[in-house]
Amino acid sequence: xxxxxxxxxxxxYEQIIDQTQRLIASGILKExxxxxxxxxxxxxxxxxPNTLQxxxxxxxRRGLCVSxxxxxxxxxxxxxxxxxxxxxxxxxxxKKIAEELCMAxxxxxxxxxxxxxxxxKEIES
Amino acid sequence: MIKARKLTxxxxxxxxxxxxxxxxxxxxxxxxxxxxxxxxxxxxxxCNGIYKPxxxxxxxxxxxxxDNPVVKDHCVFVPDELYFLPQSxxxxxxxxxxxxxPRFSTERFADLCAAFKLDRTRQLNTFSKGMRRQAATILALxxxxxxxxxxxxxxxxxxxxxxxxxxxxxxxxxxRGCTAVITSHSLRELEDTCDQxxxxxxxxxxxxSDVQNLKTSLFKVQVAFAKDYDRSQFTNMxxxxxxxxxxxANMIIRGDSSMAKVVIAAQNPLILEILPxxxxxxxxxxxxxxxxxxxxxxxxxxxRA
Amino acid sequence: xxxYLESIRRLSRLGLxxxxxxxxxxxxxxxxxxxxxxxxxxxxxxxxxxxxxAFIYAGGVVLAxxxxxxxxxxxxxxxxxxxxxxxxxxxxxxxxxxxTWIAATVLTNxxxxxxxxxxxxxxxxxxxxxxxxxxxxxxxxxVFSACAIAMSLTGTTITGLGLTILVxxxxxxxxxxxxxxxxxxxxxxxxxDLPWYLTPVTNIATGQIAQLLRPMLRHTLYAPINIxxxxxxxxxxxxxxxxxxxKRPSELAEHGAKSAALQTVFACxxxxxxxxxxxxxxxxxxxxSIPIVVGIAVGIYIIYQLVALRSxxxxxxxxxxxxxxxxxxxxxxxxxxxxxxSLQSFVPNTxxxxxxxxxxxxxxxxxxxxxxxxxxxxQFTETDVCQYAVETLRDNVATIRTSGYLxxxxxxxxxYMLSTxxxxxxxxxGRKFSRVLMFxxxxxxLSYCQQNSAFNEAIQTLPPPSSTRYLQGGDLYDKAYxxxxxxxxxxxxxLPQTDYPANDFYRIFDPYxxxxxxxxxxxxxxxxxxxxxxxxxxxxxxxxxxxxxSSAAWMAYTNNHSKNEHLDIMQQMIRKSATLTSDMDYxxxxxxxxxxPMSDGTKQTMSFYLDRSPNDPAAELKDQMQPLMNEFAEIxxxxxxxxxxxxxxxxxxxxxxxxxDDGTFIGGDIIARQYASSGNSFVSGxxxxxxxxxxxxxxxxxxxxxxxxxxxxxFTPEDQARVIEILQQWKSKQDEYNFTMYGGTPIEGPSxxxxxxxxxxxxxxx
Lengths: 125, 305, 766
Description:
The complex is a heterotrimer of chains A (125), B (305) and C (766).
Chain A: H1 12-25, E1 34-35, H2 38-45, H3 49-61, E2 65-68, E3 72-75, H4 79-104, H5 108-124
Antiparallel strand pairs in A: 1-3, 2-3
Helix pairs in contact in A: 1-3, 1-4
Chain B: E1 2-11, E2 14-24, E3 29-33, H1 40-47, E4 55-60, E5 63-64, H2 69-72, E6 75-78, H3 90-100, H4 106-115, H5 129-142, E7 147-151, H6 159-176, E8 179-184, H7 187-193, E9 196-201, E10 204-210, H8 211-217, E11 218-224, E12 238-245, E13 248-254, H9 257-265, E14 271-276, H10 279-290, E15 292-293, E16 300-301
Parallel strand pairs in B: 3-8, 3-9, 6-7, 7-8
Antiparallel strand pairs in B: 1-2, 1-4, 4-5, 9-10, 11-13, 11-14, 12-13, 15-16
Chain C: H1 2-34, H2 45-48, H3 50-67, H4 74-82, H5 87-119, H6 126-153, H7 157-185, H8 204-213, H9 218-221, H10 224-247, H11 260-279, H12 289-309, H13 312-318, H14 323-344, E1 353-358, H15 370-377, H16 383-403, H17 414-417, E2 419-427, E3 432-439, H18 442-449, H19 453-459, E4 468-471, E5 474-475, H20 479-494, E6 522-532, E7 535-544, H21 548-560, H22 567-576, E8 586-597, E9 603-612, H23 619-638, E10 640-641, E11 649-657, H24 668-675, E12 690-692, E13 695-697, E14 705-707, E15 712-714, H25 717-742
Antiparallel strand pairs in C: 1-2, 2-3, 4-5, 4-6, 6-7, 8-9, 8-11, 10-15, 11-14, 11-15, 12-13
Helix pairs in contact in C: 1-3, 1-5, 3-5, 3-6, 5-6, 5-10, 6-7, 6-10, 7-11, 7-14, 11-12, 11-14, 12-13, 15-19, 20-21, 22-23, 23-25
């Protein structure tokens, strides 16, 4: 489920959190879906379980998941909305950036190009 | 919990450890890094009751370690220079471990040997160095102790083996709340495995932190402004390092990166990039901040602005 | 328990090798001993278990060094110290595991040796096996504990071995050297007379080494009290080793010692043996040897410190400490000589003496008689004895003071009466000391001793018949044993009826007396060896006319074993010996004649001898004796064997190599007929002669016939009278020959005299 780049500069813990949020945002992880156990993930990714534990705790703190002792971790109902809120903020940021670019005199096609590229890359991967 | 208070150990006139303090909580995988001769092995040996402290205390689960089998029952040590009984094989060594460690598990031992594909009847002195390391690790982990100490065990293991051993360790940490202390020369080796890291320098721990915090608490900012500017523009942030070439400045900042981004963005820079640091870079900058400079080959205290 | 089992496993490699080696050694050594052709004595513990003596040192050191080998390497030492076992428990696990291997090895070897002896039916003292097991086990543990102490104090194999030797032996070495100095400086104190604090044998492990240098110590070494004392010392050493082991820092591995100070102590200790050797007088204590000793001491010290401290400067700084052992050497020298003198000069007053004991002149040898053993237990409270002993001590001390040694004049008669005897004085206040005294007159001493009834009983006490294992050098399975035991039984029955002590040593000896007269005439002697409890004895009983039944039994035995005397051959050879042609030819004859009647009315034993050879300078004299010989031979042919000790009888031995004029060898046909079938062989009962395929061959230059197993022969009254006459003439010719050849003069005394008829033959005991 997760792809970890351990040679990059982003901490693993952040990568887990980011990827979980993206999976929720894209709808791949839905309400009630079970997240993999720390144990399985630790073995699969060869990552320190404490690190994973920390990442999961942070996800819980953000309200994206909830743990039922003995049963596992599950995506919450509000997860999509919370992530979406974050996503909405990002859209606002994009708007602002577009404004800046416009003021700087960048043609609109170039901006569209950039957006296309990003979406294309995502569609491809 | 492993607790060291003012731990001091001398060999003749050489002070290997001086007033060392640290707490290693249970369930943590603690990495100890330092140059050769910094005192890592000495510290591990003190934790295992091999050496007696000259001053200070080293206790595990509340009990002093030295010559205390009640405490040592819970500890097992994989040293840098491995020891095996002369002309012995894994089976013979398992007998030795079994006679000494009350909770030694022969089933786990068998499973691990099978998993690593090691021949239990073959003489250990015919094994390669890497295989011997694996053997020693298997024996140690089969002892089912609460505390495991690895002295440079991972250094020199190939990545596949490293993963395998790491997997075994993670299992123990998860299943039994095992605590591991690992030493190494290299941060790279420890970065993946540990969740706590400490730097041992000249007999004391000079820097200790959660690994993830380390990677997130320090970051590099690259900025450029149209108008002239200097460091004083960013007084509200903790800047460890500031270098400027032309109109581009590189800053090392401790704090929250997103907050910092917002604050700097508010000043309308031409260029603003937040870059994470490698762990080594983190350590270097932290050490400089503490006053140590790492100019090869000799480590000495330095002065920084 | 588990660490103990693990230690047994760990030591098993070397433990098994040692076990196997000692096993093989024991088998080989004991089989070699048991199948040896001739034994006349029951073996001592040292002889029986000699491989175990080597094991004491090999096993102790090897097992300790292997068991504690991890202390000498960093990685090993760290590993063991990281294990969750307390140091105390680890130490005892190793020690008890070693003890297990040692005890198993000792037990196996003892059992094996006993088995070999039993299967080969070789006599041995059973109780020795019982003593040997604790003895060798504890001795080996002593070496082990010294090594354990050493291993805990240092971190390398070399220093470990060196320190082992120091811990194990330094103290005892000094003690031995001092003891030796005292023994060397005092003629009246020997190794068995030292006070308990100087006795080398209380430490059985070092005592074993001392015994190799001074074999007389062997007899006290195996005493249970020494074993017990050594066990206590070993326990204390092990306790010390354990404490040192607990305190030992793991980082000591691969270093010589914890600190420079300790190294200096070891260096001084290493020097001490050299100076003590000098102080005790092993090296000559003269002017030129002092600089040599100092030089060697300084050399050892410097070399040790250079190796240990690895710095010339540090070595120089530590040099002043060298003065300590050198000072000890000086103190030792003066101490030893003055101690010796004061020890020696102690002479109590007679009234302070409670009793004395006579320990026996050959107490240090393997051949101690049963009587001597019993006498050594007697406590002589009689004033005469005590006073004589005290006076002798005083006199000896005074003589040593003036002459430096026991300088007593030796003239012919008094030298016989001098007697060196070890004496133990027990004073009324409980103090005890021993000296080796030279008594001026053994007879005086004996006569005083005879006031003591226990003594009188002791000297006539024979060992229990069932305890005998060897008789006349043959064991129970020897075919002569049965016959000899008949003689012995007669002796046992007859002795109490006489006044004789069983051992001639306890007889009052008259230097003027001729001991070949009347009842004193002796026919032979019988030796026995055996053991009672842990005490091995070796007795030798003289068979004399005073015990006629035993003598008769002896004669009967001798005659039974004397067949084919070939007196006819003897006669031929005698006749031809007058005209010997070949240079290698010779003939000799010697006779013991018993009960020769003398002019003073006594009967005496006399010996006669004649030899003939070509180119004899005394040929003319011998030619005059020739007719006597010829006639004697003729009469002898008519004589008959007798078993009456009171008879006038002759015991004749002869031999020679004589050829007829035609070149044939006299006696050759008999020899060839009798013995040719045996090829090259020695045959007893009349001949020593090599025969091969019926041809006469000589073995060596003296190859010839010798008849050395004759019988006792007596004569008819007429022949007897004639023989006496012949002997009278023979004697005067013999005296003439002695005078001419050697200038010897005959001993004064009665001459060969009247005709004599024997009393009837007494019946030997059944």
